[in-house]
Amino acid sequence: MRARECHDPHPIPLIMPDSTLPHAPLSRSDHSRWPHARERVAILAVALASTSAFGNVARAQVAVAAQAAAGVGECAAQGLAQDACGYASDIFVLTAPQMIGALGGGAHLLALPGGKKSRFSLGLRASVVDGLVPNISERSMELGPGSLAPVTTSRQVVGAPVVDVGMSVYTGRQLEVGSLGQGRMGAIHILSSFSYLPDVEMGDFTLSMPDRNWRATWGARVGLLEGVSRLPDISATYLQRGLPTMDMSLMVDEDSISLGQMRGTSTGWRVIASKSVSVLGLAVGMGRDQAAYSARISTALNDPDNAGWIRSSPLEVRRSTSRSSLFGSAVLSLGPIGLTTEVGRVGRIGIATTNPIVGVQPGEAQTYGSAGLRVKF
């Protein structure tokens, strides 16, 4: 139940009568909370809008105490919208790293089918992450600083499709590796990655792309040692991945949260050892990703007792993370087509939230998987 009486030192600038609003106040006829299915679809769309199966509700113990008291930090100047700002920030910092996690996967380039080397290849993959999403409707927003209220989460498989392209620009230099035979080193491929998000409108949830629905990023692959029959091929890659700019808005009880100009970019490197025997290839690799994401947070609280709305000032929130990755993959070659599966795990990252998160540690290590195909030309 929201406390509608609050002695704020600056209440007037934050209270807007309904007549000044450019649109009708947001409301729900039954004043009920979102069904769990709808809220999960909403958060899933923020974390790359893919289909997935709903998980079980997270355990009921509070595993992490609040990292900062409500009203301290970025939202301290938001007056009556302080608690709402803190909750919106928590939603953002919990979901944004999983956007990048679902996008990144393990190897930057799916394993090529065996046989003759190619000048050009095209791959399509779908990656999924064992993620966590907040149960939005289970916490209401208070006027003023409010009080620390636990945020519950649910296990959620978060998925994302990615298209990647590889083009050879230098075949490398031939070298002798003693009695092991001949090989090549220094082969160079230019890499490109394409991500796509659709516009979504579902009840009280909206996700739109203000610029365009796709984004292209670039990188490179270097063959450190390849083609030696008794040794695995060793390669290194560097690639940036990113999402289109997003605007997201949703309703929590009778109030609204807006995460505008959401952006996410990950820059990472990988070192991979691979070996093919006949039609079967195996690979293991490791790497690290530096991710940066940002959003413009704003909230609007419906205050019927005072016949007005309480709006927060737009707040720019920026976060960055760094995490390691270990993975293994297998590829089945069918002529020029390679079918690849991959499983890996990313390390834990530190995430500070305003409110305590129930049952889990924010930024915990996550398991991911990928499946896809690659065609060489």
- Taking the alpha carbons of the first and last residues, their distance comes to 62 Å
Strand content: over 45%
Number of helices: 2
Largest sheet: 10 strands, antiparallel, barrel
The string of secondary-structure elements, in order, is EHEHEEEEEEEEEEEEEEEE
- What number of structural domains do the residues give? 1
Question: What does the average pLDDT come to?
Answer: 77
**Biggest sheet, spatial arrangement of strands:** 3-4-7-10-11-13-14-16-17-18
Summarize, please:
This protein has helices at 36-46, 82-104; strands at 15-17, 54-57, 120-134, 153-170, 173-176, 182-185, 187-196, 200-202, 205-208, 214-225, 233-242, 246-252, 255-277, 280-303, 308-311, 315-334, 337-346, 366-376. The strands form two sheets. It has a ten-stranded antiparallel beta barrel with strand order 3-4-7-10-11-13-14-16-17-18.
How would you describe the overall organization of this protein?
By secondary structure, this protein is mainly β. It has one domain. The chain is built from two helices and 18 strands. Strands 3-4-7-10-11-13-14-16-17-18 form a ten-stranded antiparallel β-barrel. It has a two-stranded antiparallel sheet with strand order 5-6.
